[in-house]
Specification:
The protein has 9 helices and 8 strands. It is α/β, with parallel strands linked by helices. Strand 7, helix 3 and strand 8 form a beta-alpha-beta unit.
Length: 265
């Protein structure tokens, strides 16, 4: 049985608590947050505290707070030589105070408190300073049904950068598409099958091969017509920037002669 203590009450901490609570080989010994009210609803299920001095002993202490707070919280911990890990994609492992054994337990997924997560589909990136702790973090990942991946800080930070592009930036494009639909009283849900098919397609081929649309086929008339439809300068700038990026990626000047025909979408 692996005992853990959670520190923090955000989206990641909440989902980890739920996953650990459902795991046969993991017990949440305690849940800390500086504001007790944030986790008070779990008081009947787990020992909660807002005092670092009251922290119990556990195999792993998991810091799941904002990136800017990780270093200070690790410094404030009133003990030494215990395994303390954070869950951030961008913070270096060595930002954790070295009075303790240090590591990273990074679930690569987007978390919202009210959205269910199937942890069996969540990759867990693990990193340790002391090699003897690696298998413990791997076992913790496996206990919640995840596949652990041993990576370096540089690799994890690069993954996080890529995740910002494929998740955060993509979601902002969804928001723009939603806003454009609203201007003409169009239901955004009509686009859901397209969104789902796009996500499914890149699991079967590379994003390069999956690219379609007017920019790739250098459909100047469609591009010009769509630019006229755009009402906000910000959206126009994004459209032009992404169109230029797609053209550059796919060398559109030679595209028609290579392919013989353009796509339908």
């Amino acid at each position: 049985m692996i005992s853990v203590i959670l520190l923090g009450a955000g989206n990641v901490a909440t989902h980890l608590y739920k996953a650990f609570s459902n795991a046969e080989n993991v017990t949440v010994t305690q849940w800390y947050n500086r504001t007790r009210a944030s986790i008070s609803s779990y008081a009947n299920d787990v020992n909660i505290t807002d005092s670092l001095e009251e922290l119990k002993e556990a195999d792993i202490y998991i810091i799941a707070v904002s990136d800017d707070s990780i270093a200070q919280l690790s410094t404030d911990l009133p003990f030494t030589n215990r395994l303390v890990v954070h869950t951030s994609g961008s913070v270096a492992m060595h930002d954790i105070d070295k009075k303790n054994q240090i590591g990273v337990f990074y679930p690569l997924q987007t978390f919202s408190k009210n959205a269910d997560i199937n942890f069996s589909e969540v990759p867990i990136c693990v990193e340790v300073y002391e090699k003897e702790n690696l298998e413990l973090l791997r076992d913790l990942a496996r206990a919640v049904g995840c596949k652990p991946h041993k990576i370096t800080t540089e690799q994890r930070q690069t993954l996080h950068l890529a995740a910002v592009f494929v998740n955060n930036f993509t979601n902002q494009l969804y928001r723009i598409g939603h806003e454009i639909c609203e201007t003409k009283n169009i239901e955004f849900e009509i686009l859901h099958p397209l969104i789902e098919e796009t996500a499914k397609k890149i699991q079967q081929m590379s994003p390069f091969m999956a690219q379609t649309g007017p920019a790739k086929r250098n459909d100047k008339k469609t591009i010009k017509r769509q630019l006229k439809l755009i009402e906000k300068e910000e959206h126009e700038a994004i459209y032009k920037m992404l169109t230029s990026s797609i053209k550059k990626t796919h060398n559109v000047s030679n595209f028609r002669s290579r392919k013989g025909k353009a796509e339908t979408n």
